[in-house]
Structures are given as structure tokens and as C-alpha cells.
Amino acid sequence: MTEARTVQKIAFVAAKQPEAQDALTQLAHLYGNVPTEDADVIVALGGDGFMLESLHGAIGNGTPIYGMNRGTVGFLMNEYRADDLPARIARAQSVTLRPLKMTAFDMQGAVTTALAINEVSLLRESRMAAKIRIFIDDIARLDEMICDGVLVATPAGSTAYNLSAHGPIIPMGADLLALTPISVFRPRRWRGALLPRKAKIAFDILQPELRPVSATADYTEVRDVRRVEIHQDEVHRLELLFDPEHNLEERILKEQFEP
User: Fold this and answer.
1) CB 227 within 8 A of CB 215
2) Pick the CATH number of 10-97+237-255 from 3.30.70.100, 3.10.450.50, 3.40.50.10330, 3.40.1190.20
3) Section 146-166 average pLDDT
4) HEC string for the chain
5) Most-buried pick from 66, 105, 212, 221 (CB within 10 A)?
6) Which residues are paired to 92 by β-bridges?
7) pLDDT of the residue at 115
8) Catalytic residue among 48, 106, 204, 218
9) pLDDT (tens digit per residue) in 117-130
10) SS (HEC) of 180-225
11) Is 48 assigned a catalytic role?
């Protein structure tokens, strides 16, 4: 049985939407509101997009985040209720998220690194289809893929862009990554792969001057890339909290049986 956590100081952060801001005012009045750097837990009020922003803000500080849905999509959020919040947080179940690290090399020779909690995606920038060579652990596994793009998703991100691109949903404990093509033309029947979470993935852009490609780690975008390298970041860990009756593992399982 998991020991209940101590919750004395709560930091509330909210999206800009009126619904989230109203919840912020109500909860801060009920429970107080401390700066995020002093908090035992951060409560994020909004949708999944705001949760992603809040998780990025928490990288490096180790403070767990408990979300409540005051937005449009709430896959990563708990149900919104104002009553007994400290008790709910104290008994919440913890899920550890491991971000991906993207290193992107552009045509001008610049190198950009960024972390992705959901996915790293490559997309064509022009009317020309992208041509991409795929390496896994320094071995070329696909010499040329003609496509709109490709992405690498974490388990937490497998229900986001990856799912829209017809990629697989990955349970949180599976230690896997999804490699999913976006509108692939050649090879015609290739639909992606499941990779060990410690795999080293690299994409070389073929004919990058003629067929430019951008790379995005969550919301950090690099234009005109020639090579992108991705691996699991081994330094940072993020802790996400869920009510026991509606935890993330259950949501991921349930999503696979939705009509």
C-alpha cells in the first residue's frame, strides 16, 4: 500500500481560459496559494495542453503535479472538484514520466537540444514529400521513407499526436516508444515500429534543400533540419498524480476499447 504524501503547501497554476481562472480564484481562496518553488505539489487547472506546459515548467524541480480538468481535452487531468483537495492529493497515485531528448542539426550548422514529454515529430515544410532515412542504434533500418513526416512518442504521448497518426497506444509500464510514420507513401505498407525506450533513434533528411523538414519536441520547433537524434533523457523525471479510481493506466487501457 502506498504511503499517503504530506500536502501542506499547494501551488495553483491555471490556463488563461475563464473556466480555469475562476477555478484558480476559488481554490486559492480555499487552500491558499504558494509559489511553485515552495510547494509540496503543483495543481494545474486546464486541459492537456496546459498540463504539458506545466510539466515542462516543472522539469528539474521534482515537484509532483496534480491536474484538474478545466479545459477541452483532459486525458492527463483528474475530474474537477473543489472539496477535500488536500486529501485527494494525499491518496493520489504517482506515475513517473521520462522525457525524450531531441538533438537537431539544421542546414546552417546550428545544433538545438530540447526535451519532449509527448513526442518528437518531423514534418515536411513544403509541397514536396519528405525523404527520410531511419537509424536505430546506429543501424540504418529504413534507407528511404517518402512521407509527410514521422514521430517518436512516449507512452504518455502515445494517445496524443501519435494516436491521430494511427500509431499504437502504449501502456505506461511498457518501457516502449512508438515510431510512427505520418502519411507514408513508400514503403507502402510500413506502419511503424515499437522500440525499446532506451533505443537511440536518428533521422537523416535526404535532399534537405529540395525537401525541407522541421523537427518539433513538444512545442520547440527547429526549421530546415538535416539530422535529428532522439534518445530517452536519463537525467529528468516527472511525477504526475492521479486519483486512484481514474488513473492513467486505466485511461490508456480504456482508450483502446473506445468506439
Assistant:
1) no
2) 3.40.50.10330
3) 93
4) CCCCCCCCCEEEEECCCHHHHHHHHHHHHHHCCCCHHHCCEEEEEECHHHHHHHHHHHCCCCCCEEEEECCCCCCCCECCCCCCHHHHHHCCEEEEECCEEEEEEECCCCEEEEEECCEEEEEECCCCCEEEEEEECCEEEEEEEEECEEEEECCCCCCCHHHHCCCCCCCHHHCEEEEEEECCCECCCCCCEEEECCCCEEEEEECCCCCCEEEEECCEEECCEEEEEEEECCCCCEEEEECHHHCHHHHHHHHCCCC
5) 66
6) none
7) 96
8) 48
9) 999 999 999 999 99
10) EEECCCECCCCCCEEEECCCCEEEEEECCCCCCEEEEECCEEECCE
11) yes
Place of cell 479510481: 245
